[in-house]
From TrEMBL:
SUPFAM superfamilies: RNI-like. This is F-box domain-containing protein. It comes from the Eukaryota.
Length: 384
């Protein structure tokens, strides 16, 4: 929905108060209004209306197509062929539209006999020279009896685990996607190695989100290949990985990790392993909850500036010894009854500038803010 102010400003130009002059040229909207309207449409996710707006005039078209083709999702062969028709390299228009694609999402559903193939995937990446962000969703059968690769993928039994990417695909991706810096890998197949293969195929990656499954044992990779160096790594997995695999992942791909996020509650051993790999560099840590940790582990993260714990118990002693570098703390308090003195640890953080707290009861939030946070003059947000 457009902001009312934008609609009213547009009306002033489209419908002037004086009687229209039939010989006069149609009034033109200022570019800033056009851009604002298109930006609002893009932000709302209304791609159908955005596509319609792009057909209104050349003024609307040029900017709207930047937003329409800026982020593309290919979920079936139908959408694949439609997109390919729009970006035919034989036409100047097709080349121009292809160059606008910055983010590409692809679904590889190996349970579908007419799924998007590896060759299709490679051709999509080849067609988008300005690609910066890649989202790949893998689906396949859970029955390991089907794991043997078949020559004809169209003959593949429905429900087989997704086959690994072949070496030719990995080599082509390394050559065709030299500037892709963000990857979201959602793997719902039992073949966890596919996530690692894409990490190897995209050496310019800086941020990665891993969903679904990853290997439970150390994967075999060609150590001669130059790996990516991640700044940000998020685990949103359906099965908790082993400590060995997480240690290997961070050690190979994220030796200078700045941001670490878990979408599931990690075990104490897993979190300790991960933090030990990036103690000297980590700046942002996000957890659904914080398990007990060995003494001083968080305190040793001397560069940590932001800490988020979505469900925090005031009975936990984990936060008693936080690094003095913290500037931002976000806590979701899970206790119904607690003593405001449980938040005294906030007083020990000299650089703290922002606190966001979520409470089950309003009165608890008021007491903590009054007695602990605002007494220090810290900016604070309270959510109930």
């Amino acid at each position: 929905m457009f902001p009312f102010s934008l609609i009213n400003r547009a009306r002033l130009y489209l419908y002037p108060s004086q009687a229209p002059n039939k010989n006069a040229e149609s009034p033109k909207l200022p570019s800033d209004i056009i851009f604002n309207v298109i930006d609002e449409l893009a932000a709302s996710g209304d791609s159908r209306t955005l596509a319609t707006v792009s057909l209104l005039s050349t003024t609307f078209r040029d900017y709207a197509q930047t937003r329409v083709f800026g982020s593309v999702s290919i979920t079936s062969r139908e959408t694949l062929f439609s997109f390919q028709d729009s970006i035919k390299p034989s036409s100047a228009r097709g080349s121009r539209l292809a160059s606008k694609v910055k983010a590409l999402a692809v679904v590889l559903d190996y349970d579908d006999p007419f799924h998007i193939t590896e060759d299709h995937f490679v051709s999509l990446v080849r067609a988008c020279p300005s690609l910066r962000s890649l989202s790949v969703s893998i689906q396949g059968c859970k029955d390991p009896i089907c794991a043997a690769p078949l020559v004809d993928q169209q003959q593949r039994p429905k429900g087989c685990p997704a086959p690994s990417f072949n070496r030719s695909t990995i080599a082509q991706l390394r050559r065709l996607a030299p500037h892709v810096s963000h990857l979201e890998m959602t793997n719902w197949s039992d073949n966890g190695d596919m996530s690692i293969q894409l990490l190897e195929a995209l050496p310019s990656l800086k941020s990665v989100v891993l969903r679904g499954t990853i290997p439970q044992t150390l994967p075999a990779v060609h150590q001669a290949d130059a790996p990516c160096s991640l700044d940000s790594l998020a685990f949103e997995l359906s099965v908790q990985p082993t400590s060995d695999v997480v240690q290997w992942l961070i050690g190979r791909y994220a030796t200078d990790l700045l941001t670490l996020s878990f979408g599931f509650e990690p075990s104490s051993a897993l979190l300790e392993t991960a933090l030990a790999q990036c103690t000297s560099t980590l700046q942002t840590l996000s957890l659904p909850s914080c398990p007990p940790l060995r003494d001083n582990l968080l305190h040793d993260c001397a560069e940590l500036t932001s800490l988020e714990i979505q469900s925090f118990s005031t009975t936990s002693s984990t936060l008693d010894n936080l690094p003095k570098s913290l500037r931002r703390v976000l806590l979701g308090v899970s206790d119904l009854l607690f003593d405001p003195e449980s938040f005294e640890f906030l007083r020990q953080l000299p650089r703290l500038t922002t606190v966001s707290l979520s409470f089950l009861r309003a009165i608890d939030g008021q007491r903590v803010v009054r007695d602990v946070v605002r007494a220090r003059g810290i900016g604070c947000e309270v959510f109930l």
